[in-house]
UniProtKB/TrEMBL annotation:
Gene3D superfamilies per the UniProt record, alphabetical: Transcription factor, T-box
Keyword check for Transcription: yes
Spans annotated as Disordered: 18-60
InterPro entries (UniProt xref): p53-like_TF_DNA-bd_sf, T-box_DNA-bd, T-box_sf, TF_T-box, TF_T-box_CS
Compositionally biased intervals (Basic and acidic residues): 41-53
GO MF entries: DNA-binding transcription factor activity, RNA polymerase II-specific; RNA polymerase II cis-regulatory region sequence-specific DNA binding
UniProt GO cellular component terms: chromatin; nucleus
Organism: Acrocephalus arundinaceus (Great reed-warbler)
Protein name: TBX22 factor
Keyword Transmembrane attributed: no
Domain T-box: 64-235
Keywords: DNA-binding, Nucleus, Transcription, Transcription regulation
PANTHER family per UniProt: T-BOX PROTEIN-RELATED, T-BOX TRANSCRIPTION FACTOR TBX22
UniProt-listed GO biological process terms: cell fate specification; positive regulation of DNA-templated transcription
Length: 253
């Protein structure tokens, strides 16, 4: 089926292929932490997400990689598929960290929290999301996903792009596989946490953030709405194709 001129602007070629022609291909394949390519020096336009960091104590900075791709999705309303079995995010969250103590050991983690206490529905005749009522998130405790390379020295973390492309989202409240549990038709934002290692705790086993030694960062352009089937036809994936390297982002079927 032919895409409209506006929808074509967000096709695989426009959103993914075009980025591949630049210095860093963003969101196209899965690479383990040690194999990550060095981040290129971000132009001023890509430094903007740092202003959205929730914490910069101690001079630590977290930069969102692929921010241009995230903004393109954000402009049309990012939707993330969630399933019982778990579905990987696309775009995935990838960051570059600066300002760590080189010899200090750190854990890097991610969680996903509600943007508000509203439930949403998509109105097709106006092509936009509207509030459908209030909701209660208290029944679901945000899960913490510890990056598998943790713990590492600050020097090691700062040399690589930290990718969370293996994170999976699920709507199964009984999930026992460690996937991040979310509710459909709600708005969420990912948060990246830099956690200094503490000999008093085994941070690899924790399921919630410790009270001390945590710095938290988030970015407005990574906010998304959870769905079990794409609602906005302009969102890549809604047209029936599969985004290469997306880790399973495909139209539900």
């Amino acid at each position: 089926m032919a895409l409209s001129s506006r929808a074509h602007a967000f096709s695989v070629e426009a959103l993914v292929g075009r980025s591949a022609k630049r210095k860093v291909p963003e969101g196209r394949d899965e690479e383990p932490g040690p194999g990550c390519r060095p981040a290129r020096r971000a132009p001023e336009a890509e430094k903007r997400p740092k202003a959205g960091a929730e914490s910069r104590a101690g001079g630590v900075q977290v930069e969102l990689q692929g921010s241009e791709l995230w903004r393109r999705f954000h402009d049309i309303g990012t939707e993330m598929i969630i399933t019982k079995a778990g579905r990987r995010m696309f775009p995935s969250v990838r960051v570059k960290v600066k300002g760590l103590e080189p010899l200090q050991q750190y854990y890097i983690a991610i969680d996903v929290v509600p943007v508000d206490s509203k439930r949403y529905r998509y109105v097709y005749h106006s092509s936009q999301w509207m509030v459908a009522g209030n909701t209660d998130h208290s029944c679901i405790t945000p899960r913490l996903y510890i990056h598998p390379d943790s713990p590492c020295s600050g020097e090691t973390w700062m040399r690589q792009i930290i990718s969370f492309d293996r994170v999976k989202l699920t709507n199964n409240e009984m999930d026992d596989k460690g996937h991040i549990i979310l509710q459909s038709m709600h708005k969420y934002k990912p948060r990246v946490h830099v956690i200094a290692q503490d000999s008093r705790f085994d941070l690899a086993q924790i399921q919630s953030l410790p009270a001390e030694g945590v710095q938290t960062f988030s970015f407005q352009e990574t906010e998304f709405t959870t769905v079990t089937a794409y609602q906005n036809q302009q969102v890549p994936g809604a047209g029936g194709w599969r985004a290469p390297g997306s880790g399973g982002m495909e139209s539900p079927g």
